[in-house]
Amino acid sequence: MKQLKQTIWTIAIVLLPFSIFAQIESYPIKDYKLPVIKRTSLDLGFSTNSNGLNGKVKGNPSGKATDNRFNFNGSGDASWNYYFQNHKWQTNSYAYSNISGDIGTSDYKQGSEIKTSSSQLNTSIHAYSSSLYYFRDKLFISLSPGGSINYDRSKLSGTYKDNSGAIISDDDIYSNSTFSNAGMGVGIGYGRIEPVPDVHKIVFTLLDLKKSGRLLKEPSTDEITQISQAFSTLRNERFFDDREQKIRYVKVIDSLITTMGITAKGDIGVSTTLYDNICYAYMPSRYSGYRISLEPRGDYFDHTYTRTGQDRYSSHLVTLGVNANLIYETPINIYWQRNLSMNISYTDRTIDSKNYSPTSKYKVSEINLSGGYGYYPNTRTNLKISFGGRYRNIDSDETYNGMPVGLKYGEFFANGSLYYYLSPKVRIDASAQLAYKTNIDANANIYESNLQFDKNAYDKFTTKEFSYGFSAKLTYAIF
Fold first, then answer.
1. What does DSSP assign to residue 422?
2. Does one domain contain both 324 and 444?
3. Strands, DSSP E only, in 354-461?
4. What do you get for the CA distance between the two ends of the chain, in Å?
5. What's the structural domain count of the chain?
6. What is the residue range of 88's domain?
7. Are 352 and 472 in the same domain?
8. Are residues 168 and 97 in the same domain?
9. How far is the CA of 430 from the CAs of 122, 375, 424, 435, 473, in angstroms?
10. Which backbone phi and psi does 111 adopt, to 5 degrees?
C-alpha cells in the first residue's frame, strides 16, 4: 500500500508541470476575449494638382494651329473613427467629409477658335455607426444608423468664333446634383463574436521562440492570454508613425515575457523573432463565436438634378425591410478555422420618379449562404477553401407586354487559394474558382443608383452560365 502511494505521488509530480503549463500548441484560441478597447482618431488631408499644355503646329495645309490648356484641382477631406469594445458594447462608428474643386480652360485656334472654361465643386458627408449592446449575458440590441449627402455643382462656358473673329455662339451651362440618404436599423439578437487574430500571432510567435530554443519555460494558458491582450491593446492604440509603433510593440512584449520568466533578458534572438513576426508574419482574419440576429431597417434616398435648358429631375426611394443573420466562426485549433454564415433579407421598395414613370413598387427577397475552412500551419503558409450560394428574387406589380417585370437570380460558387512556403528557395502560389449562375428575366433594369425603374428596357430571357479558373505559380531560386 505504501509503495502504491509513492507511485501515485511520483506520477502526480511528473504530470504537475503539464497541468500547470499548457502546451502552446493546445492553447484554446476559441476562448480568447479582447480586453477593453477604446480608440478615437481624426485625420485631415489636403491635395492639389495642376497641369497645362501650350502647343503650336506650323506647316499644316489647313493653316497654323495653337492649342493651350490649363487645369487645376484641389481637395480636402476629414475622417473620424471611433471603436469601443467591452463586455457590454461592441461599437464601430465613422464619419467622412470631402470638398473638392476643379477649374480648367482650353483655347484651340486654327482659323476658327473654340474657347472653353469649366469649374466644378463637389462636397460630401458620410456617417455610419454599428453598435451591439449586451443587456443580458449574450442577448443584445443592435443599432445601425447612417446617412450621407452629396452635392455637385458645375459650370461649362464655351465660345465659338469663325475665321474673322465673329462670335457664333457663347453659352454658359450650369448643372446641380444632390443625392442624400438616411436610414436606421434596430434589432435584437443572441451570441457574441470575438476577433482572435492577435492571439493567433502571439501563439505562433511563441512557437517560433520555442523551436529556436529561446524559451526558459513553457508559458501557461493564462500567460498566453495576458500577452495576447497586451498585444491587442497595443495594436488598437492611436499612433502617427508606423515604424515607431512597431518598435514599441517589440519593446513592450519583450519586456512582458521577460518579466514572466518565459525568456531571458537581453536575448537578441527573442527581439529579432518578435520583430519578424510582428512586421512580416501572415495574420489571418480569424474570429470565434456565433451570433443570431433579426433587424428591421428603413432607408430613404433622394436625388435631384437640374441643368440649363432641361427640366428638373427628381426621384425618391423608400425601402422598408428586415434582415435575419446567422454567423458561426470557430477556431478548431491553432491551425484550423471553420466559418459559416447565412443571411435572409426581405425589402419593400418604392421608387417615385416623376420625370420618367409613375411610382414603381417592387419586393426584393434574398438568401446568401457561405462557409469555408482556413489552414495556417505556420506564419508563412496558408490554405483557404470557401463555398456558398445566393438566390435573389425581385417581384413587381408592373407588367410589360403582358409579362410581369422581375428578376430571379441564382448562384453557386467554390473558391480556393494556397500559398505554400516550402523553403526560402521554393514557394507555391495557387488559386482556383468555380461558379454556376442562372438568370431568369435578367434584363429588368432596376437602377438604384439614380433611383429610376426603367421597365421599358425589359426583355424576358433566361441565361445559364458555368465558369471556372485556375492559376498556379512556382518560384524556385537556384542561386
1. -
2. yes
3. 360-375, 382-400, 403-421, 426-440, 446-447, 452-453
4. 68
5. 2
6. 51-186+299-476
7. yes
8. yes
9. 43, 15, 18, 17, 6
10. 80, -80
Residue 472 counted as domain residue: yes
Q: Where are the alpha helices (DSSP H) in 236-382?
A: 242-259, 268-280
73 lies in the same domain as 13 = no
Residue 90: inside a domain, yes or no? yes
Say whether pTM exceeds 0.85: no
Helix (H, G, I), strand (E, B) or coil at 250: helix
Residue for cell digits 468555380? Answer: 434
Q: Which three cell numbers stand for residue 96?
A: 467622412
With respect to residue 289, please indicate whether it lies within any of the assigned structural domains: no
Mind listing the pLDDT tens digit of every residue in the chain (479 residues)? 455 445 434 433 433 343 344 589 999 999 999 999 999 999 999 999 998 888 887 766 666 788 888 899 999 999 999 999 999 999 999 999 999 999 998 888 877 778 888 899 999 999 999 999 999 989 999 999 999 999 999 988 888 777 777 777 778 888 999 999 999 999 999 999 999 999 999 999 999 999 999 999 999 999 999 999 999 999 988 888 888 999 999 999 999 999 999 999 989 999 999 999 988 888 899 999 999 999 999 999 999 988 887 878 888 889 999 999 999 999 999 999 999 999 999 999 888 876 655 677 888 899 999 999 999 998 889 999 999 999 988 887 766 666 666 777 888 999 999 998 888 889 899 999 999 988 755 444 444 444 444 444 444 556 788 889 999 999 988 88
Which residues, 6 or more positions from 327, have their beta carbon under 8 angstroms from its beta carbon? Answer: 191, 193, 290, 291, 339, 340, 341
Query: Which distant-in-sequence residues (6+ apart) come within 8 Å of 190 by Cβ?
Result: 138, 139, 140, 291, 292, 293
Is residue 285 assigned to a domain? Answer: no
Residue with cell 513592450: 252
Written in H, E and C, the secondary structure of 209-244 is HHHCCCECCCCCHHHHHHHHHHHHHHHCCCCCCHHH
Q: Tell me: do 167 and 304 sit in the same domain.
A: yes
